[in-house]
Design a protein that fits this description.
By secondary structure, the chain is mostly helical. The chain has five helices and no strands.
Length: about 110
């Protein structure tokens, strides 16, 4: 009942009559469905592509190869050979221990 009152008030506000109020299933239609008018669309035809005949001699090179410009390359310079390590006997002491001075401890007053 409420739906019918709302529907009638909407129709009155827009100055239109109540037509197609009920659908096939005997249910109330919305104003959207009642106002919908099915329109037929014209048939669309597929567009034919135009073929072009190019009367140029065949060169056998693709446009990519023809247009590609290789970057200028600088020759690679070889690194200088590393000097060979001196073969010294292993004394069992690290270089840190050898380079660390006990004088530094004495300077800070820790002995």
């Amino acid at each position: 009942m409420y739906d019918q009152r709302v529907y009638e008030s909407v129709c009155r506000q827009r100055n239109r009559g109540i037509e197609n109020e009920w659908d096939e299933k005997e249910q109330m239609q919305s104003t959207y469905r009642a106002d919908f008018v099915a329109k037929e669309l014209p048939e669309r035809e597929a567009r034919k592509t135009e073929t072009r005949v190019v009367n140029l001699p065949f060169e056998g090179i693709s446009t990519y190869m023809r247009d590609y410009k290789a970057p200028e390359m600088v020759p690679v310079e070889r690194r200088a050979k590393e000097p060979e390590r001196e073969k010294l006997p292993f004394e069992g002491v690290s270089t840190y221990t050898l380079d660390f001075s006990i004088k530094a401890w004495e300077y800070f007053g820790k002995t």
